[in-house]
Amino acid sequence: MRMFIGIPLAEAVVEKLETVRARLYRRGDGLRWAARESWHITLQFLGETSAEQYACLVTNLGAVRMEPFVIGLDGLGCFDRAGVLFVTVRLTPALTALQQRVTTATEPCGFTPEKRAFAPHITLARGRGHDDARRLSALATELRRPPQFSPFLAEEFVLYQSFPGPGGSRYERRERFTLNA
Length: 181
Ligand code: 3AM
Description:
The strands form three sheets. This protein has a four-stranded antiparallel β-sheet, covered by helices on one side. A four-stranded antiparallel β-sheet has the order 2-7-6-5, covered by helices on one side. Strands 4-8 form a two-stranded antiparallel sheet. By secondary structure, the chain is of the alpha+beta class. The chain has a single domain, classed as Cyclic Phosphodiesterase, Chain: A, CATH 3.90.1140.10. It is built from four helices and ten strands. Helices cover 28% and strands 33% of the residues. Bound molecules: ligand 3AM. Ligand 3AM binds next to strand 3.
């Protein structure tokens, strides 16, 4: 199983993102737009996960303690090299703490934390090739009035299973972990 851990979005955020996507999307633009059901903030990509590791994750992630906290979203951005258009998620002490608690919890299950800095985001679209990077970064700056997102309360995080496919990956929520102190 290909797994990752992320934070699902509040419905109001999903609605707002839908309007942003509608302003940016062009028919035949060749980009792979993420389906609204799959929008999330990745906390840790786990990759291939055995049944044993899955059981370990359920136990250890269930032991993570954290109060619900507010997540703020900023404007659009682009990872040029990866060819990803995204909404920037504000990196707050609470979000950093959750990400660290999650990666600490998964380590005994055989997952190593990524070395690169945590750059929380919501992926909206991916390019298909090298040439798309420029188009994606143009899209990130195209809107004259940058979108304004209301903050939302994160009340849970989720263990997702990813099913890669030709049109992009489909994500299924496998386990939910409620935030409470
Ligand atoms: O949707 P975002 O961008 O948050 O890019 C993949 C996606 O992140 C990322 O994990 C999330 C769910 O698939 N991902 C996929 N393969 C990865 C890898 N090998 C990866 N992140 C790090 N290393």
